[in-house]
Structures are given as C-alpha cells and as structure tokens.
Q: What sequence folds into this?
C-alpha cells in the first residue's frame, strides 16, 4: 500500500540509523493495511503519521564516579511514546548495546503491548548504554543515583512509570527509587518491580515468564494441545527465562536449555531450576558454572556455535521460548526448529525473531505468539502494582497470579478474534498489531488533536 510505504520512507529519512525501530515499525505498519483500507477514519486523522512519532524524547548525560575515583560518562534515554491510554509505562534497559534506535523500537512495541493488556497504560521505554557486568554494588548504586538525578524531573506516579528490563531488576529499581524519593520528597508508585518489603507486588518478578507460558497454554488449548510432557527450549537465563522455566515445570513440561551472553546449557534431564536461580539470580555468575554442579549437562560457549546460528534452537523440541534479546532467532534457526518438528514458538523477549523467521512461522501456521502479546504479563502485573500502590493495599500472590492468567487469556482471545475478523485466523501477529493499534487510535481520535 503506497500510503504506508511513504510513511515508512519518511521514518527512515527523518530518524536515520535506527534499524531496530524500522524493523518493529515495518511489521506493525504492514499488518495495519487491511484495517486502514476498511476504516477510513484512521487515515483521515493521520493516526499512523502521529503514532510513529514519540510524544517526547529525553536524552541526557549520566556522569558518575567508579570505584577508582575515575569519572565515567554514559548516555541516558527515556522515550515517552504515547499517552492516549494512560501514563507512559515501560521498562529501563541497561546494556552496552542500548542506543536511540533500540529504545525507540522497545517504546514503539510497548504502546501496542500495553494496549493489548486492556489496562490504562500508555507506552514508553528508557535506559542507558551503561554495562552492569563486572561493576561493584557501589558502582551500580552510584550509577542508578546519577541516572535518576536527571530522570526524576520527567516521571511521576501518574505521568511516567518506569520498571525493569535487561540489566535492571529489583536491586537497581531500589537504588533509583531511593534517589527519586530523596529528590522529590514523595513516596509514590513511580517505579514498578519494587522489592516486596516496600511497595512491590507479589508475582511481579514471576509475571513475564509465567505470563508467557500462560499465553502458550491458551494458544495450544485452541488447537486441542497442551504442554504436558513436552520438551521445550528456552533461551536467556535472566528474569524472563527463569520464570518461564518455572511455569513450564508447573504445567508438566520439560525445559532442557537456557543460555546467556557467553554460551548455552543443554540438560536433557531438565534444567535444574534451583541451581539456575543460585547462579544467575543470587550470584550473577556465568552459565558455564552450571556443569560444575551438574556434570551430566552440556555447556557450549558461543565461540563454538555453528556460524550464524543460535545453537539453542538446534535441539528437537515441541515448543521454543526465546527469552533473551532482540533478533536472537533468525531464519536458519526458524527452519531448523520446524525441521525438528517444533509446533509452538512463544516469545518472552521483545522482538527475538527476525522478520523472515516471523514470516515463516506465520506461513506454516504453527502456534506463534509474538512478543508484544506473549510477554505482556510483566507490564500487566506492573499495572497491578500501580493499582495496589495507589490504593495502599497489598494483594496475595494467588490474587495477582489469577489476574495475570486472566489477562493473558484475554490478550490471546483479543488477538485471535481480531485475526479471524481480518480473515487470517491463525495469524496472531496481524491480530495483536491490529487490536493494539485500534485501541490506541480510537482513544487518540476521541481525545482530539493534542
Ligand atoms: P535480564 O537482564 O534479567 O536477562 C537477560 C538475559 O538475556 C541474560 O541471560 C543475558 O545474558 C541474556 N542476554 C542479554 N543480551 C544478550 C545478547 N545481546 N546476546 C545474548 N544474550 C543476551 O533481562 P530480562 O530477562 O528482564 O529480559 C529478557 C528479554 O525479555 C528482553 O528482550 C526484555 O526486553 C524482555 N522483557 C522483559 C520483561 C521484564 O519484565 N523483565 C517484560 C517483557 C519483556 P547475561 O546473563 O550474560 O547478561
Ligand atoms: O518490555 C516490557 O514489557 C518490560 N520490560 C516491562 C515493563 C513494565 O513496565 O513492567
């Protein structure tokens, strides 16, 4: 469609060198074609032209002192993308690969993900190119304080509510919250993913991984299948991967892989979850340590991966759960998975599959859950944390987990019903993109040109 192509060209010209953002935007814009053709109001109100442009982008300097007393300088980002449905909401990523294009792709995805949850949250994302690896606890604290010493003036419990993402967990949220409180003199729900001692929600830590497996459960139930006794592959070994593995065990599945930025573990007996938590959550060690405690498992360092492939995806499985990072599953990996009989790919990470891999999953009509639908459990429970903070109440684990399960079922139903409405019943990419877009677009029209 010429109209959409023109918008895409405009994006490339006006926001140069933002490849991840083009990738996320292209997938969504292409999906919108049948909607735009059927409903002229979106074109008339220039919703696409408006939605691809962040409402506000904040770029800032973060300088801090390392343990040697040397000055370090990093970049800080917060993109407040769209507030039609509620306060900007989305995580903060601390990783050396962070740049404006990465944060923009994550923020753009977040708009539609948050809309799909059915909750009142807008889309935003932020972070820094700061590398937490090898930093002392004091350095992490000083960095987080320096980061918040600028960010605090832009955020607030009903304005913009950041949370965690890669490299940002409860420890970093704690240091950032402390600084926010000191600078503003306000104890409010300005960040989610807080510690349970002082305002965090039960089940937030588990939410993204659990939610991803609930999504797979509903996708598979729709075709009369379950995860029971099925071999599953998981990538990553951070927050999302760990709780994906935990929920897979709850449902009687057998997760046999996990990975980190240096290599992967294949444990045919099933990943030892207690060991994994001890190594990655508590001690922040490399996965290579796993085989010291479990010699029957196999560790493969990245240097030994087959060229151009992520070896996690080369083992035969029923279902695959990419839970590490963007573009970690390419077309070669996708072909290998299908060749080995994989029936389900459910994304815990944001945009982990390359566009050609996504196209193949959709074309083959396997149960494919795109990240913006399948990993929405994390931000959903973040919103439940905001609700608990605002009402000064605390809900039980079971209450939050039951709500999470219901939200994931609802997201699946919304994406599936929308896919059927546009005559592509198994295409949850189309269903999720159109359903998320429509909700935000209708709100933008109703709120006028602001
Ligand atoms: P963590 O920092 O807890 O874990 C990230 C994991 O991925 C680690 O095992 C890390 O390895 C690995 N990893 C990170 N970058 C790379 C890379 N470039 N190459 C290979 N491995 C890499 O992050 P999360 O688990 O929170 O996030 C994982 C994914 O899930 C991200 O895409 C994130 O955006 C997405 N997500 C997270 C949500 C949340 O609530 N936390 C919600 C929704 C989506 P190592 O240990 O070596 O660093
Ligand atoms: O990508 C994501 O949805 C997150 N990192 C979680 C965002 C949040 O606000 O909890």
A:
């Amino acid at each position: 469609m010429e109209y959409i192509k023109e918008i895409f060209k405009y994006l490339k010209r006006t926001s140069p060198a933002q490849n991840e953002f083009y990738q996320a935007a292209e997938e969504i814009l292409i999906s919108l074609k049948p909607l735009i053709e059927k409903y002229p109001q979106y074109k008339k109100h220039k919703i696409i032209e408006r939605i691809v442009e962040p409402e506000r982008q904040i770029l800032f300097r973060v300088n801090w002192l390392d343990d040697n007393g040397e000055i370090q300088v990093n970049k800080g980002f917060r993109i407040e993308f769209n507030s039609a449905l509620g306060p900007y909401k989305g995580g903060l990523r601390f990783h050396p690969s962070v740049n404006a294009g990465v944060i923009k792709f994550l923020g753009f995805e977040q708009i539609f993900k948050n809309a799909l949850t059915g909750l009142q949250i807008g889309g935003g994302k932020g972070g820094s190119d700061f590398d937490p690896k090898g930093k002392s606890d004091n350095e992490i604290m000083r960095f987080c304080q320096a980061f918040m010493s600028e960010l605090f003036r832009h955020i607030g419990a009903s304005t913009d509510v950041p949370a965690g993402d890669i490299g940002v967990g409860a420890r970093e949220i704690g240091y950032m919250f402390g600084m926010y409180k000191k600078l503003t003199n306000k104890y409010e729900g300005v960040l989610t993913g807080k510690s349970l001692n002082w305002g965090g929600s039960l089940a937030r830590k588990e939410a993204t991984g659990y939610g991803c497996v609930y999504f797979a459960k509903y996708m598979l139930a729709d075709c009369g299948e379950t995860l029971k006794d099925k071999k599953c592959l998981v990538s990553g070994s951070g927050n999302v991967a760990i709780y994906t593995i935990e929920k897979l065990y709850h449902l009687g599945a057998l997760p046999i892989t996990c990975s980190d930025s240096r290599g992967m573990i294949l444990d045919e007996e099933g990943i030892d979850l207690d060991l994994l938590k001890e190594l990655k959550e508590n001690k922040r060690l490399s996965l290579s340590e796993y085989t010291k405690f479990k010699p029957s498992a196999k560790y493969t360092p990245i240097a030994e991966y087959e060229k151009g492939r992520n070896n996690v995806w080369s083992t035969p499985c029923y279902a695959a759960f990419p839970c590490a990072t963007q573009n970690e599953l390419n077309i070669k990996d996708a072909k290998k998975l299908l060749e080995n009989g994989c029936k389900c790919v459910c994304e815990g990470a944001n945009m982990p599959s390359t566009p050609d891999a996504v196209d193949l999953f959709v074309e083959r009509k396997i149960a494919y859950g795109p990240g913006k639908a399948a990993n929405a459990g994390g931000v959903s429970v973040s919103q439940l944390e905001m609700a608990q903070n605002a009402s000064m109440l605390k809900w039980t684990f079971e209450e939050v987990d039951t709500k999470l399960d219901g939200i994931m079922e609802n997201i699946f139903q919304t994406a599936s019903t929308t896919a059927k409405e546009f005559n592509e019943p198994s295409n949850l990419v189309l269903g999720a993109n159109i359903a998320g877009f429509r909700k935000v677009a209708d709100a933008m029209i109703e709120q006028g040109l602001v």
The radius of gyration is 21 Å. The longest strand covers residues 71-82.
